TrEMBL record:
GO molecular function: ATP binding; ATP hydrolysis activity
Keyword tags: ATP-binding, Cell membrane, Membrane, Nucleotide-binding, Repeat, Sugar transport, Translocase, Transport
InterPro entries: ABC_carbohydrate_import_ATPase (IPR050107), ABC_transporter-like_ATP-bd (IPR003439), ABC_transporter-like_CS (IPR017871), P-loop_NTPase (IPR027417)
The organism of origin for this protein: Streptomyces iranensis
Protein name according to UniProt: ABC-type sugar transport system ATPase subunit
Length: 297
């Protein structure tokens, strides 16, 4: 005898919604926007309901990756035989002006390897060099001082301080530069935050708004602005588009492409192929090892 089962499936992945669901409800800004059979809401209509604006093309062609600097460009990151609880004997290089994707499912070690470059995970062996200098591993302040900015995997526990405002979150890594004697000048803090709000197109009432009042996509942009606040030469992005809508996904990936065009080295860790399309190279991890490498295209 077959037992009937009802399930609630929560996702931003629109293809899966159409594949497994019969009815879909769209929530935006804590309000129910629409409920309808999935057959009556094609992808474009779903995007418009989720974002509140025109959808544009759902799958834009992958931008062509510019030529890598290769031997002519300086090596910004050198990882030599790095090992830890989740990865083993990993060696790689990352050049200035290059975007390298690191692909891997949960348990592959890819997230922990990215976190190790940012000081969020302490390896047990091996060596990391940033801009030609050894990095003291397992230390976020050391990584920041070395020129590494990071968008961590979980914005709620590692990327943002929910009790603080948009401006306080964005400027936290550079608070010591915002006034004399360690005192923060609110005008300097808010000016820096407004520039980031404009550049990343963060939808907010202003710098003083609590970060918890923003949508998930805008919270992720605030976390990205925080990663960029120190003007890092190396940018580590771990699952940068997790839990955001289609429009925010495009905006966040555009920020990564701009960072590469500005000469920063970008490591983009993701299990989403769409996130990796514009990378110059993609390394694949499984079981803690780098198992494959692919050039763009």
């Amino acid at each position: 005898m077959t037992q009937a089962l009802t399930f609630l499936y929560i996702s931003h992945r629109l293809g899966e919604i159409h594949e497994v669901c019969r009815t879909v409800t769209v929530l935006r800004d804590a309000r129910r926007i629409v409920t309808a059979p999935v057959g009556e809401l094609p992808t474009r209509a779903l995007i418009e309901a989720m974002t509140g604006g025109p959808a544009g093309p759902h799958r834009a062609p992958a931008p062509a990756a510019p030529p890598r600097p290769g031997a002519a460009g300086p090596v910004a990151v050198r990882v030599d035989r790095l090992s830890g609880s989740y990865f083993h004997d990993v060696s790689l290089t990352l050049a200035a002006g290059e975007a390298v994707g690191l692909a891997g499912l949960a348990g592959s070690g890819s997230h922990q390897l990215g976190a190790a470059l940012a000081g969020l995970h302490r390896p047990t062996g091996g060596r990391i060099e940033i801009l030609g200098r050894p990095l003291r591993t397992g230390s976020v302040p050391a990584a920041l001082a070395a020129g590494v900015g990071c968008l961590p995997r979980d914005r709620h526990t590692e990327g943002l301080v929910p009790q603080l405002s948009v401006a306080e979150n964005i400027t936290m890594p550079v608070s010591g530069r915002l006034g004399p004697g360690g005192l923060i000048r609110p005008s300097a803090r808010d000016a820096l935050a407004r520039r980031a709000i404009d550049e990343l197109e963060i939808t907010t009432e202003g710098p003083a708004q609590p970060v918890t009042a923003l949508s998930g996509g805008n919270q992720q942009k605030v976390a990205m602005a925080r990663a960029l606040a120190t003007d890092p030469r190396v940018l580590v992005l771990i699952d940068p588009t997790a839990g955001v809508d289609v429009r925010s996904r495009r905006a966040l990936l555009d920020v990564a492409l701009r960072a590469r065009a500005e000469g920063r080295a970008v490591l983009l860790v993701s299990d989403q192929p769409e996130d990796l399309r514009a990378c110059d190279r993609v390394l694949v991890m499984a079981g803690g090892f780098v198992t494959a490498a692919y050039e763009a295209g």
